[in-house]
Write a structure and sequence with these properties.
The protein is α/β, with parallel strands linked by helices. It folds into four domains: about 120 residues, Rossmann fold; about 180 residues, 2-Layer Sandwich (Alpha-Beta Plaits); about 80 residues, no CATH class; about 80 residues, GMP Synthetase, Chain A, domain 3 (2-Layer Sandwich). Helix content is about 45%, strand content about 20%. The chain is built from 21 helices and 15 strands. A five-stranded parallel β-sheet has the order 2-1-3-4-5. Strands 7-8-6-11-12 form a five-stranded mixed β-sheet, with helices on both faces. About 5% of the residues have low confidence.
Length: about 475
């Protein structure tokens, strides 16, 4: 640590230099204002002790000249002044110092003020300027210490979905407000879930946050946070956007694109069953979990369980959420793996293989079973149709008239994973990957004036449909 002391009083220079040198600081003594500026132009320092009696330069005080230099803006300055100068310092319109000492001062007080100001400056540099939460330096330090001390910990990576479209629609000022609100929700969640326990909340940058806590508290923290986030953040949209559940933003080509409201992906990793050596390893695993979460509509929390041992199929099945979001009152519906197992369409051995691949790749269980040729997509559709009490439409076998398909834009079909299939006396039949997405259903009814009839569509069949119908050249041909 290098400290510059500028004073024309030899006794002050000697006292400061002696005290700080014995504390292993590198001390530079200067007596002339011009020399201070020359030194700072070519050398960096961690703190400046500056006498208010130094000569003025061209009508400006030395402290103003220092603050004009961008690379010195964050360096703490402690003013050294006589007691008679105190009122002038307090009332001065040219203040640019961080702290002051009244001469004569004791060596102990000097040491304490120097330590305090250096620590405060380091915190300012490490903290995120927008949220004032600890930044990347502090985050790495916390993770490194936990690894070195062999502590058990969980890391939550939080990433806002569709934040850029919100910025484009409402502007950066409101976007910054959303970021600050998210930070506040994280702190409030910490106070609610872990009021007396260790928990670190940091801001990686932009719309990315991190939480480090004990694995036992991970899920409770994530679910409380998501609940509050989904309750508060949508209020940043205007009433019309809130009601329809999406916004329209012009892309670079001037075309309107549809985007859902902001949601949050919470990807979790812990060292219960894997020994991490660095923050980079954790971030890589979390990124894979987060990429899976971002394919799902809405806010979700998911722990990386790929290194977690599976002791029996029943336990593994409980880990997995049902393939389709459930409406209220259907909490008793079994996960897909158990449904197929009970129906005799898959053996325990095959389910174990599928579960293993699911946990390795992050694919949905049904998609994994189909891609491994362990079960036909039609079997999965029929099982879900029976259990969810919703009709299943196979997008492999359906024929859709162009005027029906043209009811929605290509971007709307892709982003909401919904296909208009046909007009019936009951209304507009929809093949939906999430047939319980009430916001999308409500938006379709308001924009088309038709009564939606939601039906179940499987993810893998929707992907095939996209390749066959939604490629830009194919769409233009079919729609032309």
């Amino acid at each position: 640590m290098r400290i510059l002391i500028a004073d024309n009083d030899p006794s002050i220079l000697e006292l400061v230099s002696t005290r700080l040198t014995t504390r292993h600081y590198d001390v530079v003594e200067i007596t002339e204002s011009e020399d201070v500026l020359r030194y700072l132009a070519r050398q960096s320092v961690d703190l400046i002790l500056l006498s208010n009696q130094m000569n003025r330069l061209g009508g400006k005080s030395l402290i103003e000249k220092i603050r004009e230099k961008q690379h010195l803006a964050a360096v703490p300055i402690i003013m050294l002044a006589q007691e008679s100068d105190l009122a002038e310092l307090v009332l001065s319109q040219e203040r640019g110092f961080d702290d002051f000492l009244i001469k004569p001062f004791s060596p102990l007080v000097l040491q304490m003020r120097v330590t305090l100001n250096i620590s405060r400056a380091r915190w300012r540099v490490e903290a995120n300027a927008l949220t004032h939460l600890p930044g990347n330096i502090a985050i790495e330090k916390v993770i490194r210490e936990k690894i070195e001390h062999q502590e058990k910990f969980s890391v939550l990576y939080l990433d806002l979905n569709h934040f850029k479209s919100f910025n484009d629609r409402y502007g950066f000022e409101k976007g910054d407000h959303v970021i600050r609100q998210t930070a506040k929700i994280l702190i409030q969640t910490q106070e609610k879930i872990l009021p007396d326990e260790e928990c670190f909340v940091g801001h990686i940058g932009g719309d990315d946050f991190i939480v480090v806590l004990h694995p036992d508290k991970e899920e409770a923290f994530a679910r409380v946070f998501i609940s509050e986030f989904d309750r508060i953040i949508p209020t940043n949209y205007n009433e019309a956007d809130q009601k329809q559940g999406f916004i329209r933003v012009s892309n670079r080509r001037g075309e309107l694109e549809t985007f859902p409201l902001i949601s949050c992906s919470v990807a979790a990793c812990n060292n219960l069953f894997r020994s991490y050596k660095s923050l980079g390893e954790i971030a890589q695993d979390a990124a894979e979990v987060k990429s899976f979460l971002k394919m799902q509509p809405g806010s979700h929390y998911l722990r990386d369980r790929r290194s977690e041992p599976i002791r029996k199929v029943e336990q593994a099945v409980k880990i997995l959420a049902p393939e389709t979001a459930l409406p209220q009152g259907k909490d008793s519906i079994e996960p897909l793996g158990q449904i197929l197992l009970n129906a005799g369409l898959i053996s325990e051995k095959k389910l174990r293989l599928a579960l293993k691949k699911h946990l390795e790749t992050g694919e949905r269980l049904g998609q994994t079973l189909i891609s491994m040729n362990l079960v036909r997509s039609e079997d999965v559709g029929r099982m879900l149709e029976k259990k969810l009490n919703l009709p299943y439409i196979s997008l492999r076998n359906v024929s859709i008239r162009s005027e029906i398909l043209h009811l929605f834009t290509r971007d709307f079909i892709k982003s909401h994973r919904v296909v208009p299939v046909e007009m019936t006396p009951e209304g507009l039949k929809l093949a939906m990957c999430d047939p319980f997405d009430l916001r999308t259903i409500d938006a379709i009814e308001r924009t088309t004036g038709l009564k939606p009839v939601p039906c179940l569509a499987l993810e893998d069949e929707f992907e095939e449909f996209m390749e066959a119908y939604l490629a830009e050249d194919v769409w233009e041909t079919k729609m032309g």
